[in-house]
Design goal:
about 290 residues; Cytochrome Bc1 Complex, Chain D, domain 2; two-stranded antiparallel ribbon; about 60% helix; elongated; binds heme C
């Protein structure tokens, strides 16, 4: 930071004009990004697993995963029909395994356009072992800790703030695919973005970190851990507010909801205008009578 300040000072002394300022700003951003990426893998390594876990995970992997992902997780490119048999798992991290196996997506039963959620076939311990093995192949995102996504420690006010912020993030980053109510949407080529309500917070966090299939990944640089927590808080708040029959706006989509807001809002304004108008005339009349 001191270096940056000094160079910024020197540039302004030489009157390089506004472009120089922009250049310094960009350089600063680049540096911050660079420092961040340099530090990020170190975070991923924090969850060091025992060699016993890695060994056990490798055994499970050879039986259940290697025929698609390769003997060493290096991936198998394409079969005769042109489907990718299984991508390389080097560097996908423990989070990807915990997500894919923990939601029953893996082991995939057959190659296809989408790996849907299925019944989970491995125990929690086995999933942890598989994750430890894949994490040993190369540095990647670790399984998040409950502190990363829980809002339990927050005050009521902080919670409301987190949910409001999460709602904003959700609207800008997720609704295009998952629909504004989080209840799934169609994707090109026969795929779909699934319903994300009632997904475990840990799996939401991991989906964000690893970006399964056509979903973009939201690295901690794009969406800070706190922002991830806020989105999760928002998604959970949608679960907590059940849609009681009759008055729900659910499923109508953002346009319909906007329309609703518009009618109520403008209707309300008209009402207020009429109220003010009638009251001012009456008060004028009252004054005149006095
Ligand atoms: C029938 C083949 C098949 C089997 C068996 C299989 N996979 Fe996969 N796996 C795939 C394909 C294809 C993809 C990529 C498509 C997708 O994400 O839906 C994938 C994706 C993954 C990913 C996501 C990679 C990423 O970039 O985020 C992980 C992690 C994974 N598999 C782990 C496993 C593990 C662990 C097992 C064993 C328990 C397993 N897979 C078994 C075919 C398979
Ligand atoms: C470009 C489209 C796209 C965007 C944008 C997107 N997703 Fe996804 N998302 C997907 C698809 C497709 C899947 C299914 C992947 C799979 O089945 O392997 C998915 C899966 C998920 C899952 C896993 C659901 C489950 O059943 O386990 C969660 C959670 C999720 N997304 C949350 C989010 C959140 C939160 C955002 C915004 C920050 C977001 N997604 C943005 C396309 C998208």
């Amino acid at each position: 930071m001191r270096f940056l300040n000094r160079s910024a000072g020197r540039l302004s002394r030489h009157r390089r004009g506004p472009l120089a300022g922009v250049a310094v700003l960009l350089l600063g951003l680049l540096l911050t990004g660079g420092v961040y990426t340099a530090l990020a893998p170190a975070q991923a390594d924090q969850q060091a697993s025992s060699t016993a876990d890695v060994e056990a995970g490798r055994e499970l992997f050879l039986v259940g995963c290697a025929f698609c992902h390769g003997q060493n997780g290096e991936g198998i490119s394409t079969d005769r029909d042109g489907y990718q048999v299984g991508p390389s798992l080097v560097g996908v991290g423990a989070a990807a395994v915990d997500f894919q196996v923990g939601t029953g997506r893996m082991p995939m039963s057959h190659p296809g356009a989408q790996a849907p959620r299925k019944k989970v076939v491995y125990s929690d311990e086995e999933i942890a072992q598989l994750a430890a093995y894949v994490a040993s192949l190369g540095p990647g995102p670790a399984i998040p800790n409950p502190e990363d996504y829980s809002i339990d420690g927050l005050s009521e006010e902080e919670r409301e703030k987190a949910i409001a912020n999460g709602g904003q993030i959700f609207l800008t980053n997720c609704t295009a695919c998952h629909n504004y109510n989080g209840k799934s949407g169609a994707m090109p080529r026969g795929g779909f973005a699934p319903n994300i309500r009632n997904v475990e917070p840990r799996h939401i966090y991991e989906a964000l970190l690893t970006g399964p299939q056509t979903m973009p990944s939201f690295s901690n640089g794009n969406l800070s851990p706190e922002e991830k927590r806020d989105v999760i808080a928002y998604i959970q708040s949608m679960n907590d507010s059940p849609e009681i029959g009759g008055f729900t706006l659910g499923g109508l989509g953002p346009v319909a909801e906007g329309m609703f807001g518009w009618i109520i809002g403008v209707g309300g304004l008209v009402g207020i205008a009429i109220w003010i108008a009638s009251h001012t005339t009456r008060s004028k009349k009252n004054k005149a009578e006095a």
